[in-house]
Specification:
Structural class: mainly alpha
Number of strands: 0
Helix content: over 70%
Distance between the termini: 47 Å
Shape: rod-shaped
Order of helices and strands: HHHHHHHHH
Length: about 260
């Protein structure tokens, strides 16, 4: 059977029963009435039967008009439903993104997403420079103190107490608890958001950014990536954990930025 006919039959099978009956009955009857009208015209029957002419003409028009009207209304209703679904999906996605961004920025001293993203990149550069300096080098000690001061501005400890060395992250229970709860909430919000990312054909953002965000959420503050849970209290362990933490935080910020732009 030709492909266009198969498509028509497939479409017809997807319609309500009443629509299928109207189309299946109306079109054949309409063609039959056309044939009847042509034959009656041939035998010159119409001139003496004006009322019958009007009646059959109207019925013929209805046999074709009603099915085509149903097809048109079905097309419009499907388009409207698809549009509503698209709008509702975008609204839900925007709400999920806002919830995730709010959670992500919860410990960032009231800064915006753009500000946090820029500060994270600056802090990552500082950590990279610290790694190039030798332990015991006065320049490294100064660079670490400057870094910790800047980090405190981004993510202050409870009550604003300064962290003056790497070990300070691990000795304050309120500091540890605050960021453990933050991590739990961020991961929860990301998982809810991640469930919505596949609801749009082609995704909301480019696959590389989405994958990086997903990986960052899964790795956030695991062993070796958590300044509040160091393997040892030496400076090298603190620097490596902080470098990995900032890398994950940067991935989440970039994913959040892309998602905010895509859902507005």
């Amino acid at each position: 059977m030709p492909q266009p006919i198969m498509r028509v039959l497939g479409w017809l099978r997807g319609q309500p029963q009443a629509t299928r009956v109207v189309i299946a009955v109306g079109l054949p009857v309409g063609f039959a009435l056309i044939g009847l009208g042509l034959w009656l015209d041939y035998v010159n029957w119409w001139p003496t039967h004006g009322y019958a002419l009007n009646l059959i003409s109207g019925l013929t028009g209805a046999c074709f008009g009603v099915p085509f009207a149903l097809v048109g209304l079905d097309y419009l209703s499907r388009n409207q439903a698809a549009y509503r679904e698209t709008v509702e999906t975008r609204v839900r996605a925007a709400a999920a993104v806002d919830s995730f961004v709010t959670s992500l920025l919860d410990v960032s001293n009231g800064r915006s997403l753009d500000e946090v993203t820029n500060l994270v990149h600056d802090l990552s550069t500082q950590v990279g420079n610290i790694r190039l300096l030798r332990d015991g080098d006065p320049a490294r000690d100064a660079a670490e103190r400057a870094f910790l001061t800047d980090f405190d501005r981004l993510m202050p400890s409870p009550h604003g107490r300064p962290r003056e060395r790497w070990g300070a992250f691990t000795i304050r229970s309120d500091d540890i608890k605050k960021f453990r709860l933050w991590r739990t909430d961020v991961k929860y919000r990301w998982r809810k958001l991640d469930g919505m990312l596949g609801q749009k054909d082609g995704g909301w953002i480019d696959k590389a950014t989405e994958t990086a965000g997903h990986q960052a959420a899964e790795l956030l503050m695991l062993d070796g990536r958590n300044p509040w849970r160091l393997r040892s209290r030496d400076g090298q362990s603190g620097v490596e954990s902080m470098r990995n933490f900032l890398e994950d935080l940067a991935g989440l910020c970039e994913a959040a930025t892309a998602l905010v732009a895509a859902t507005r």
